[in-house]
Amino acid sequence: MSDEKGYAFVESTKYPNISEPDQKLGKPQPPYEIPLEEGLPLINLPMPGEIDLGKYGLRQAIEERRSLRHYNKEALTLEELSYLLWLTQGVVTINKKRAVTLRTVPSAGCRHPFETYLSINRVAGLEPGLYRFVASTHQLVLLNKDETFNTKLTEVCLGQRQVATSAVTFIWAAVPYRTAWRYSERSYRYLYLDAGHVCQNLHLAAESINCGVCAIGAYDDDGADTLLGFNPPETFVIYMATLGKKASKD
Ligand SMILES: Cc1cc2nc3c(=O)[nH]c(=O)nc-3n(C[C@H](O)[C@H](O)[C@H](O)COP(=O)(O)O)c2cc1C
Fold first, then answer.
1. Which residue's CA is minimally distant from atom 9 of ligand 1?
2. Is the CB of 214 under 6 A from ligand 1?
3. Residues 73, 246 contacting (CB under 8 angstroms)
């Protein structure tokens, strides 16, 4: 292997090598969220202020976190799912004047270039299928009740068993123009850095409610984008993570 291919990305995104960003050219900024899919059911999640799942020490969560690939068959509650979504992409405030969101995770330039999709297998009160988190209103939209979706997702994740057995698999899609509007080609660095923060929050939030996570970086990009109906580079799958209750120790 040569380093050239990989470093070409770093080289091409150094300041002297990037284009003038659209923001500087006076172009309008893109919305902070994709439009709501018309005619699909919306599901209210327990609101963040109502979530009461106790307090777990941050240090303990960091020290005890391990990637987990074997899960208990127990379903997550809707409150637990709400908690995980809140701590990974929750919108704390919307600055209406600047039309930007402040969330529970940092993001370069406050651009928040992600949409969260969920392949749900075991969440009490939710039918299995594909959902999207509407972060601005803290709701879910049910996109697809296809019970075979998760099997197809497992295939595009190169057959990794933890996708098949997860209670829920998080699929983070990048909408690069949100960040590229401000940073042009350099934004591609930030997409991947931002995604790391999101998944780490998922790891720690999961640890605090007796769940475990396995990050998924090994997947067929084209297969994943086709399965989700994305049209890269406009939108593409950037990262995934499986999650479930910890298997009991006995
Ligand atoms: C960016 C990234 C991608 C990963 N992709 C996968 C994956 O596709 N499959 C998998 O089983 N583990 C994956 N992992 C989990 C790592 O294998 C795991 O973090 C590592 O073995 C260290 O173990 P620990 O998380 O328990 O500390 C990924 C982790 C990261 C950070």
1. 216
2. yes
3. no
Three-class DSSP labels, 75-120: CECHHHHHHHHHHHHCEEEEECCCCEEEECCCCHHHCCCEEEEEEE
* 3-state SS, residue 44: strand
- Measured CA to CA, the distance from residue 193 to residue 146 in angstroms comes to 32
- SS3 category, 67: strand
Count Cα neighbours of 44 within 13 Å in the Cβ-side half-sphere.
3
The answer for residues whose C-beta is within 8 angstroms of residue 5's C-beta and 6 or more apart is none
pLDDT tens for residues 92-139? Answer: 999 999 999 999 999 999 999 999 999 999 999 999 999 999 999 999
Residue 29 Cα to ligand 1 middle (Å): 35
pLDDT band for 2, please (50, 70, 90 cuts): confident
Residue 19 is encoded by which pair of tokens?
């284009």
Which of 64, 65, 67, 201 most suits a substitution to test ligand 1, by most atoms within 8 Å of the C-beta?
67
Closest CA to 86 of 58, 62, 52, 61: 52
- Asked if 122 and 112 count as a contact pair (C-beta separation under 8 A), the reply is no
- What is the architecture, at CATH level 2, of domain 4-31+42-245? 3-Layer(aba) Sandwich (3.40)
Structure tokens at 88: 């990974």
Ligand 1 near 64 CB (within 6 A): no
How much is the mean pLDDT over the chain? 97
pLDDT in tens, 149-185: 999 999 999 999 999 999 999 999 999 999 999 999 9
